[in-house]
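Subject: for your reference before the review

Hello V.,

The reviewers asked for a structural picture of the protein, and I figured it would be easier to keep everything in one thread rather than splitting it across files. Below is the amino acid sequence we used in the manuscript, unchanged from the supplementary table.
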Amino acid sequence: MNKTIKSALLGASLSVSLIAAPLFAATEQTQSHLKTLLGELLHLEQQLEARVPGEDTIQPGANYTIKPGDSLGGIAKRAYGDTDLKPSLVMQMMVENNPTAFFRNNANFIYAGKIIRIPSVEDFRNMLFSGQSDSLLTQNSDKSQWIRFP
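And here is what came back from the structure prediction:
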């Protein structure tokens, strides 16, 4: 998942702070951004714990059987609709994690009867703090493959 999607995960203030930060930010600034991101994930967990489940509510992290007439946006809204999390990110993660439930990985063509796993807060945490993106924050990264302009 690209850096723009990761930075736009939880809200406008967070995305502005991450986009405005230089790639090789000072350690204090990087730690500040990481604390903000962790705080936003904690807030998301608190929002999910505090909500009152209704008839349509889908529990994040659960398996869900797609019914005729379901849309991916509707499923995402039922799982995370009352939180600060962007539904488009939930939808993208559902498509990536459940490729057999979608015709050619297209979110608009969903198969009824397929069982999909709704992403949990831990799934978002793992996506954001994967080992792949950690190398972007270190100044000792291998620069041999970088493109150089004259």
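For the response letter, the relevant points are probably these. The chain has one domain: 3-135. The chain has a mean pLDDT of 77.

Happy to draft the paragraph if you're swamped.

O.
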